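Q: Could you write out the predicted structure for this multi-component system? I'm mainly interested in how the pieces pack against one another.
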Amino acid sequence: MRFQTEILVRGQAGTGEALVFTQPISFWGGIDPTSGRVTDVRHPQHGASIAGRVLFLPGTIGSSSASAVLLELVYANHAPAALIMDAPDAILLLGLLVAQEMGWPTPIAVRLKAAEQGGFAGQTVSVGEDGLLKVL
Amino acid sequence: MSLVLSPEERAIAGGSDGAAIAMRLVAESARLLGAPRLIPIASAHIDGALYHGDSGTLFAERLVEGGARVSVRATLNVGALDLTGSCRVRLADHPRDMAQRMMGAYRALGCEPSWTCAPYQAGHRPAFGTDVAWGESNAVVFCNSVLGARTNRYGDFLDIACAIAGRAPDTGLHRPENRRASIIFDVSQIDPGFLASDIAWPILGTLFGRTVGSNIGVVKGIETHPGEDALKAFGAASASAGAVGLFHIAGVTPEAPDVAAILANGPVEVVSIDQTALRNTQSALSTIASTGQLDAVAIGSPHLSFAEIRTLIRLLNGRRVCLPFYACTGRHVLKQLETHGLLADLTSAGITLVADTCVVVTPILADLPNGILMTNSGKFAHYAPGNTGYSVLYGSLADCVESAVCGRPTFTQVAA
């Protein structure tokens, strides 16, 4: 399976096991910035870790400190291998933009409709620097 | 419609200093938001100086090293420490050091050390119709709704980037056509006695936020201006319960002389509020039933105004509290209390004043596994369970005072 996605923020190509969120999440208060673990007890993927995974997000909600959480994940090497989002969330993605300004290596962020995300759950996938999403 | 930068903006963004970093961040955000251009801003309120981890401190210091300075008036929201020394924050050495460095870096960028989430009561009041870049949800909603200035919700990093660049993406609530209401929140059936009570506004705000979500609503049926502190409580509760960035109250807020004046073209939904809905909202602000146990009381989210502290002193009426009682406020109010000789009234009553920060953003409350906190703030009620581990009992300011004096939950009135 191959998908040409739209690049939202350029970054490093990434490979990893797909982690497909089945509900939107608030990064602040929902993801532990020191580990990447999902701490929101009401979220279906509670307990999973986004670190090193290719993360599929059907949506994001909540706090304007999401960018700070993503920046801290990048800084501490707990960021996802790649981010795949239904729609661009400028607040969250700002975390990647700031990390790039700091000269820290950042994962690529691309766009893929939520309806097309489900099929990737549990598979090992890669996202190229050109935005090509492949199942390995 | 893609983003077009002016030659001057492009030149700044092409540099390698702190101003270039800021301009690039504003421009890239504008691109992600689909904004066609950047617009000049008159002021900023910066929420980014609250410590969430070392990376945020390092970013602020990078801007300082790059020689960046804010180009417009920029006040600071709370940090993780009480720099006035009014109360003790239980942070370990490393985060304390990094939080202090962060607060110092934002000062070095030229931000004012206001350290309050109610900058609009500390002398920062942009004029009606001006574009600004404000962070902190309650400040954003007050700025848009009560002052009629125009801002989106500027999150961490973008707030300081806009303040340095003096620009913001032209999108969202900066555009007049996006400020019109599509939901009428009708409270004309509600008992006027309840609407006149101080407990009404956080409850109304919570219900309003839950009802409108990220849409824009106009409240209908408020006969008299409830005062700024009531609007502050309403906005803060609405922004923590929903994603409210702007509300209108017909006959009260400046963009809504009446309901018709602020309605959007297109379909409008009417939601009629009854006493039952308010009662349910009020009970849901508490996370446990009252058992007789109470460990602490916290008020002041948003930060208490001078008028609210005077009401607190009046309700205390010379009595002393026998529980930890935290009153969160800004240093602008500490100064007024000092001038009026009122600090002693509070300390002799056993009140702990918290300045520059507050009890839900940094560890101040005693570390209790099953603690119970009483508050009159809709915003504290929303965030305290997750951020402090305390369960919440919601009451009026009078309830908070009587409970703290008696040492157990005491409800002085049945409100809704």
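A: Regarding packing and overall arrangement: The radius of gyration of chain A is 13 Å.
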